Q: What sequence folds into this?
């Protein structure tokens, strides 16, 4: 068995799936630490993993950016308004992250360092340098498809195909942009580690030439593995955030569920954190009531609430709209008639896993890609761009737009049938199990060379 360090950075959706992976590895006998931000320390420790700290915690707003090639449940404090702003904020995030990632991999106390690194998409461009300096193997575990392919354009491009040649060219350009974002942080990290100069592009190509598996944590039900990907690139299925086996929904939620027909979930996670909460809350409640459906609002970073400004949140099971805090989607979504969310990779997968239809409200980056995938499966309505609800439409038209989508998604049995069928297909996947197998093969190969 091996000492393993998982590194993951960003928002909840970028980090939480690795707690499930780590827990499975621990059950298989490995010693597992997860390096991430202070915000997620309780989640990491609850999963039975050692917590290692990474800087640049987006929840505390000590930095205001993050890379655009990951699942962007949160671009920092507020949503970037343009590509230049996004790049600037991503570079700030990476610089702070790079300054602390070596500390996370250093031996703790009198112990020894890790024998294997598992790297998220956000941390891989830095973790490759660590693996080189420590002379240990590293496996990359991205949550999104970020390798060039002719099948689709880079996921941050909004989902519009450029043709097979154009898609591949855009994918290669996307990798070069990522290399440029990490250039300064990688240079500083290599200097600290005593490594000779090398560009992120050079190190990325060296890692690819090693032929180690790259395990993508999403479902082929949503994104079939591109046929033009190199053989080491695999799609293994989703990894799910860890929660206690005996975890239950809060009593107030259980009472609400039994007091009427299945409600609609509305939540935007760590999106909409820049003053949109009041407008979104009012819009959501009005749309639910116009569509004549019950609802559950998850407050998230925007602070959604069913109460008027200054009032008390609706928490009685007799209300038609209930406000909740953090509740695992795995427990909540199966009880919903539909879900409305921003279509981050993890939330989109959770809706599909529960077999419930979706109203996608994508905000930025890869979210339009996942929204389009859900719609193409017949499990979602046409996406409603987030800006339509928060900026572009007057309040009465925004309410009508969302209410119409709610009526569509709850009144069409075909969408629920498609969602249930997709859930059955997805249930055959074991993403975390595939990671355990890949880790065991890597460890065995290393032992055989000693």
A:
């Amino acid at each position: 068995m091996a000492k393993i360090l998982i590194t993951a950075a960003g928002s909840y959706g970028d980090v939480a799936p690795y707690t499930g992976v780590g827990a499975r590895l621990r059950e298989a006998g490995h010693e597992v630490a997860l390096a991430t931000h202070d915000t997620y320390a309780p989640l990491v420790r609850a999963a039975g993993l050692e917590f290692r700290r990474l800087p640049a915690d987006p929840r505390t707003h000590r930095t205001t950016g993050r890379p655009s090639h990951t699942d962007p449940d949160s671009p920092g404090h507020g949503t970037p308004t343009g590509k230049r702003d996004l790049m600037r904020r991503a570079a700030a995030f990476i610089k702070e992250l790079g300054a602390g990632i070596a500390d996370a991999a250093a031996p703790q106390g009198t112990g020894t360092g890790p024998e294997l690194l598992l790297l998220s998409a956000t941390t891989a461009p830095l973790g490759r340098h660590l693996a080189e300096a420590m002379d240990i193997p590293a496996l990359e575990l991205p949550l999104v498809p970020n390798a060039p392919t002719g099948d689709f354009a880079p996921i941050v491009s909004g989902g519009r195909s450029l043709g097979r040649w154009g898609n591949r060219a855009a994918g290669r350009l996307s990798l070069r942009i990522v290399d440029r974002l990490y250039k300064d942080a990688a240079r500083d990290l290599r200097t600290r580690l005593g490594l000779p100069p090398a560009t992120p592009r050079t190190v990325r190509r060296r890692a690819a030439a090693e032929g180690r598996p790259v395990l993508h944590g999403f479902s082929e039900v949503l994104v079939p593995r591109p046929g033009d990907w190199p053989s080491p690139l695999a799609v293994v299925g989703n990894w799910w955030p860890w929660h206690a086996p005996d975890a239950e929904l809060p009593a107030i939620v259980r009472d609400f569920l039994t007091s009427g027909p299945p409600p609609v979930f509305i939540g935007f996670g760590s999106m909409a954190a820049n003053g949109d909460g009041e407008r979104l809350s009012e819009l959501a409640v009005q749309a639910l009531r116009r569509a004549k459906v019950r609802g559950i609002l998850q407050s998230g970073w925007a602070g959604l609430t069913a109460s008027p400004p200054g009032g008390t949140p609706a928490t009685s099971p007799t209300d038609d709209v209930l406000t909740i805090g953090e509740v695992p989607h795995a427990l909540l979504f199966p009880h919903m008639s539909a879900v409305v969310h921003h279509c981050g990779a993890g939330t989109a997968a959770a809706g599909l896993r529960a077999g419930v239809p979706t109203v996608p409200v994508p905000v930025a980056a890869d979210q339009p890609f996942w929204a389009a995938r859900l719609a193409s499966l017949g499990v979602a309505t046409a996406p409603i761009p987030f800006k339509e609800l928060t900026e572009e439409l007057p309040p009465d038209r925004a309410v009508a737009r969302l209410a119409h989508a709610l009526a569509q998604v709850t009144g069409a049995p075909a969408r629920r049938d498609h969602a249930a069928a997709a859930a059955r297909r997805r249930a055959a996947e074991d993403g975390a199990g595939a990671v355990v197998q890949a880790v065991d093969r890597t460890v065995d190969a290393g032992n055989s060379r000693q």
Remarks:
- The mean pLDDT is 88.
